[in-house]
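Loading example: each entry is read as two labelled lines plus one structure line.
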Amino acid sequence: MAHKLLQMKDICKRFGPTVALDRVSLDVTAGEVLALIGENGAGKSTLLKVLSGAHRADSGHITIQGATYRPRGPLDARNAGIAMIYQELNLAPDLSVEDNLLLGQSGTGSGMLFRKQQRDKVIETLQTVGLGSLNPTAIVGEQSVATQQLIEVSRALVSNAKIILFDEPTSSLPQKDVAQLFEIISRLKKSKIGIVYISHFLEEVRNVADSYSVLRDGQAVGEGRISEISDSEIISLMVGRDVKDLYPQIPHTPGATRLKVNGVRGYHSQQKATFEVRAGEIFGLAGLVGSGRTELVRTLFGLDHLVEGSIELDGRIVTGSVKKRMNAGLGMLSEDRKREGLAQELPIIENATMGSLRRYVNRLLLNLRERDGSASALIRKVEVKAHSGYQNVSELSGGNQQKVAIARILHQDAKVLIMDEPTKGIDVGTKAEIYRMMGELAADGKTVIFVSSYLPELLSVCDRIGVMARGNLREIREAEDWTEDSIMAVATSSER
Amino acid sequence: MLNKQLWKLGPLIALIVIVGLFWAADHTWGQGQFLSLRNFRVITNSAALIAVPAFGMTIIIISGGIDLSAGTALTLCGTTLALMLKHAPNATVDAAAASSGVDFSLWVAFALLLMTATGATCGFVNGALISGTKVVPFIVTLGTMTIYLGIGQILSGESTVYAPKENIPDWLSLCYTGRIAENYLIPPLNLFGFEVGFKIPSSVYITLILAVTAGILMRYTVFGRNVFALGSSESTARLCGINAPLTIMSVYTLAGFFVAIGGLLYFADVKNGNPSDGTGKELEIIAAVVLGGGSLSGGRGSIVGTMIGALIITVIRNGCGLLSIPNTYTLIIIGCIIIIAVVVDQLRHGSPEWFFRLISRRRNTNW
């Protein structure tokens, strides 16, 4: 019997008292795509780091084509033919495509590069990944995210990778580029490369993978052919219980008009937008990445300068600084949780109360005990899992971080909550909790504006959905009048 | 959790270790003066000179900035004060000036006000340039550093400004006379005829009052928490509706106020004003903040830590002096301590990675 391309057997890894990986075994076959599925913190990234040599496994062994593989660092991984494509791209943005592909390639041993000889290989590889028309001397930083990702794939090919690991590759890609990426992956399969594909999106996994392996709490809890398992079975493997209600329905009835947006155009927007949202309503904003949704909501919140139009909240015109808009009742959750949404190196309490401390001022000074008390209550309410409120946000998982960010707009007591991609990079269990919170907020008479690229959640959670394309708010309908297909049709239409 | 609390005591432990080392060295090779009351006064006196402007620097560094102009702005303030006192209408010196009818103490009050305004203006200019032009603080204050030096030299006519002894009010000269305890502005506590505790220099009182004020400001006011938020992540602060430009300008202006008080202590120390004295002082000030646990990437730092940092620097310099170690070697020792402090500080935040690899590798081989 031929050896498996990659075999990981009984891999264990602990960090202090935490067991990150508990006897995890994994097989990758040449010419197949293995989907690695699991919630955040299930051990996927630790497994990747063991494979890339960033962490050493405490026990267990790895073989590549039958040969023992014990990496001490990224260089070992590379020499063994393992390439990683991370969520955050690892390219030198100021260098040319060619330079990036040849980075770290041993040229001749004398430290010299022979560009002419290698140019052919570069062009050939670029063609393999469908970038035949790209000039090898083009600067990487000027290319689109999708192209950069493909450049990274071709870099893996240049270094003769046998196994390519994709870590959430589509999270930052527009829909049409996803299709392109999938086509490249199927091409890679044909040339007998083994692929590990990590993703939260079950539809994608079903689309691209041949087999699957589910991790939960550091253990491999299920594996098999992807065609032999249903989505709900995968989800219950991931969360360890039956998620009957991925989309919990909290009954709420929209009331009077709360927010009127009249022909608003921001500094970074291309077109004017007009819409109204009622109290007790969840309004969805769909569209491709780059369709102007984020620019629109940032303009509403005052982070982008308002060029024309007006915003009315409960009959009053809202203008001015972010602070003024917060006082008027607007609250916003940033799509960039890591850099903008939260101050990573500050404690949870500090983050949850940031910007609205004035209510704790007593004779010029802050009453910290009062602040910590009400912040802790809030943190318990949104069920953040942490040792204490004084823990730094950076030590929390993605889902818990997002809950802290939500706790902040709750603390601020906003009437209109703008949530930009609130479920991005978050595990299924926490997603369901966030949907439930949105429903409860609406039931409480608040207004939620829900921006998302993930259509199933919009269709299940929202009352109405507006679709944006090319900076234009094209069409608004009741959620039940939309389907995924009709949304995509509007989102990708090119009419002006 | 306990571990975390213990780490916070890092600078204090370092100070105790350094004091212990110098005490042992002084006991063995020196004249046993290191742990005397007199030397205690000398050390705390000199530490005050660094600590006061370093409080302002701490606030700036917490906000994610840096101020390279602190040194020259400080001597500019000192020079302003010296010039004002030189031209003060004092009857014992200048009969003509006395007849002009301007009251001497009023003039001194005006001189102090002008000095404070100078410091605050220097800080405000820094803050306004930083938030207005969006140029990084390092570059902006690198520029203003030489600008303030230049202005100082124009004012002083490129030389040292001496104020006549008679024109320096008693309280001012006494607020910095390190070793002679009897001359202190604030007399030692006297309870029922018994002297309680020991005599503490007035400069130390000034420093302690400013430290408490700054500490409360940073911990118990909205402004203070906003500064932490801003230094930790500027975009998050903006998202939370914090007025970043206004906060930045306030931070630098406030730091300018601390610099001005630093200038006052500097003048009281040397009794003259020389603008070029300030070059290099900013690095000492920054070093005190860093030794006290301040992070140059912002969001972290403490007033108490900075005070300890200033003490560490002065103890080393003073101890080396007592042991007759040449000044050049003292500089090298202080430099090493700063680098060690930052490396140790990085350890508690999980970097550098090589260190942890080393530990884990060793553990692996043991098994």
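The two ends of chain B are 28 Å apart (CA to CA).
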